[in-house]
Design a protein that fits this description.
about 110 residues; mainly alpha; 2 domains; 7 helices; elongated
């Protein structure tokens, strides 16, 4: 519906009309009535796959950090941080990001 509407109107108009048409035709009516603004906002937001991947990587690294810190408590925080930093570096994480997450100096990370 949006693609068809785009032939004659702006993206915002096309999205709003498509949502209204779906409601009028009982397509996901209950859901759209409840979440209309959220759906419209989502459809109008530009999606950047690279940004999504970067966010996902950062979230994964942070989760790994948390797990690693729990596992490494018996070894001492510095050793655990270096192990995590080494693993992040091997996965291609940016050195500045690793320093931010592990609180290790950049020169230490570069030597790993």
């Amino acid at each position: 519906m949006i693609r068809e509407n785009r032939k004659t109107m702006s993206l915002e108009e096309a999205v709003r009309k498509a949502v209204a048409d779906c409601i009028n035709q009982n397509v996901l009516k209950t859901f759209l009535e409840k979440h209309k603004q959220e759906v419209e906002a989502m459809l109008l937001t530009d999606w950047d796959w690279n940004v999504a991947l970067d966010v996902s990587k950062e979230e994964g690294f942070e989760m790994g950090w948390d797990k690693g810190m729990e596992k490494g408590k018996g070894e001492g925080m510095e050793i655990a941080a270096e192990k995590i930093a080494r693993a992040m570096k091997e996965e291609g994480a940016d050195v500045n990001f690793i320093a931010k997450v592990t609180n290790l100096p950049i020169d230490t990370i570069q030597k790993l």
